[in-house]
Design goal:
Layout (H helix, E strand, L loop, with lengths): L11 H4 L7 H10 L14 H16 L2 H10 L11 H16 L5 H40 L3 H29 L3 H8 L1 H23 L6 H21 L3 H25 L1
């Protein structure tokens, strides 16, 4: 049988077990998504973790033999996305595999949407979670510790962790129940624009961290040159597309070269 073909019409009833889904199988797949980064590698990135999370569902759907081998092979390919999205993707893939096993969906259609879905969510996750929400949590925690509210910082961490668990469980179920239609729901959530708003809050929190950590008294006008410098750097990066890493390397080079520049100017004059 071709690796990219669905089951033959006569095989559908015999090869699509009625034991899937069960709460036990879905829970096993969900819990395994927490280990997606345990087998990260340079070739397939998170593919081993994805294959491990999918395996209970694939066994229930295909039982064994060649069809199970081909199904497992689909998840041995390169896979890399923000780990907060893995439960959602595993839910989507389980729903699609169920339809493939029943002959409702072809492997070709699955392959055509797989990578687009993964990498679109990866970009959203890196921007919203990695660049906004996690930074918001860390800066808020730093402010709480610096202001002497360590207990509140611990409580905040526990609340955020519980919220993450609820988010993963909820998106896993939505992905399994709604399939690719869940992407329309994510579009309505408008996470990219919300991420931009959170980044503005993070900028204010960063200033708060500096104020709380400053060792002496704060004279507001002494901060103006630094504020203009960072504001100008942000405007330059935003308008020119210049890499932040290159800009920081240039600033560091100028800073380290100042003593040498002073000596050179002193020798000349």
């Amino acid at each position: 049988m071709n690796a990219h073909s669905g089951p033959l019409p006569g095989e559908r009833r015999a090869l699509a077990p009625t034991v899937f889904p069960t709460a036990r199988i879905l829970l096993a797949c969900l819990l395994r998504t927490w280990l997606v980064g345990a087998g990260i590698n340079t070739r397939g990135m998170q593919n081993l973790g994805l294959a491990y999370a999918m395996d209970p569902g694939l066994k229930a759907l295909y039982g064994g033999g060649e069809r199970l081998r081909l199904a497992r092979k689909r998840y041995a390919k390169h896979y890399n996305t923000h780990p907060f999205w893995t439960p959602l993707l595993v839910g989507i893939f389980l729903g699609m595999e169920k339809k493939i096993s029943q002959g409702i969906l072809t492997v070709e259609l699955y392959e055509s949407v797989r990578d687009t879905t993964i990498y679109t969510l990866s970009a959203i996750g890196d921007s919203f979670f990695g660049g906004s929400i996690l930074v918001l949590w860390s800066l808020t925690t730093a402010c709480l510790f610096l202001s002497g509210n360590a207990s509140a910082a611990v409580v905040l961490g526990l609340v955020c962790f519980a919220g993450l668990i609820v988010f993963k469980c909820g998106t896993f179920w939505l992905g399994f129940r709604e399939g690719l239609n869940v992407l329309h729901r994510l579009g309505r959530w408008n996470l990219i624009n919300w991420g931009q708003r959170f980044k503005l809050v993070n900028a204010a929190l960063l200033v708060a961290v500096w104020v709380l950590a400053w060792p002496g008294s704060i004279v507001w006008y002494e901060w103006l040159p630094v504020a203009f410098l960072f504001g100008g750097a942000a405007a330059l990066v935003s308008s020119s597309g210049l890499s932040r890493e290159i800009l920081m390397a240039g600033v560091l080079a100028v800073y380290l070269g100042l003593p040498w520049l002073k000596k050179l100017v002193g020798s000349l004059f």
